[in-house]
Amino acid sequence: MADVHTDVIRSIPGITCSVCDGKDFVGTRYVCLICWDYDLCQKCYEEKRCTARHRPHHPMQSVISREDFFKSTQSAVAVDEVRLCCPFCGERELNLAALLQHNQQNHAEEAESVRCPVCVTYNVPGNSLLDGLFLEHLRNEHSELDEGISCTTCQKKPFAGNRYACLVCHNYDLCEECHTGKRFSKHHLPYHPMQQIMPKEAYAVQNPPPERIFRCPYCGDGELSASGLRDHCQELHQNCPGIRVRCSICGVCRVPYKNFTLLKCSLLDHLRDYHGLKGAPEPEPEVIRPIECSICFLELEAEIVTERYCQCRHEEFHEKCIREWLAINPTCPVCRAMQKP
What pTM, to 2 d.p., does this model score? Predict the structure, then answer.
């Protein structure tokens, strides 16, 4: 699975409606779960238009908007849970758990090649047709993350209560009992930052929903909001792109399309592309005006060259000085850039 998910938007450059051939269309995009590479714009979908290779009864899945996508990846509490469509029978309005249960009960023996509605909804790169492996794919990639996790120390699986995930080690998780008792395995170091992950219900009952619940994977600072984590890393950890860590937001929010594992990109890039957390723009550098001529070294006062004589942007000369210089030297006296033709 690609590690930088930059394609999750409502209007995607390069996507063409299979009916009207509209490109970069605005509005909800709908994807056929049976046909290969079949997309409809919102207008064609609502007017029930289709091509000859597509059948009207084929299940269609909508792609989540950019705003809703980033909202779902920043909150520990499910907001407006995405509704999914069964790729075999077209059953609609299913959440993730209901989709898995529905397919286990009704389509366990289906071998037809279909696309995963979860991957389509979140526009996961490479969401092509699955060759008769949809149920297995659903179990492995999109089942509740907590169900298949065992405590790395005591091997308890599954375990109730809070989970503690190391943000530096690969797939290192502890139950509350082992974390409280400080029981670690050999490859884990006690100073590694550990992110507390509470059950979903524990977040949901809090009013207002908790925000300052994330921990920095580099230095271990805690009680950070999603935007606070971004600002913290931008200020203190810009020079740590080569250190692989786990994203504490992905762990707490249980992002349904992405495995909670060590990142292949920098954390700041991940926060921007997966969670929509863009840092403050870099301030424009202050322009320092030259105070002396670079040729004669006398004070410039208000006399600065207005015409550019060289291919560079240097202008800290008296007009007379630069003319005399270029009469015997074809290059800039500061950087040796060639004189303009």
Answer: 0.62
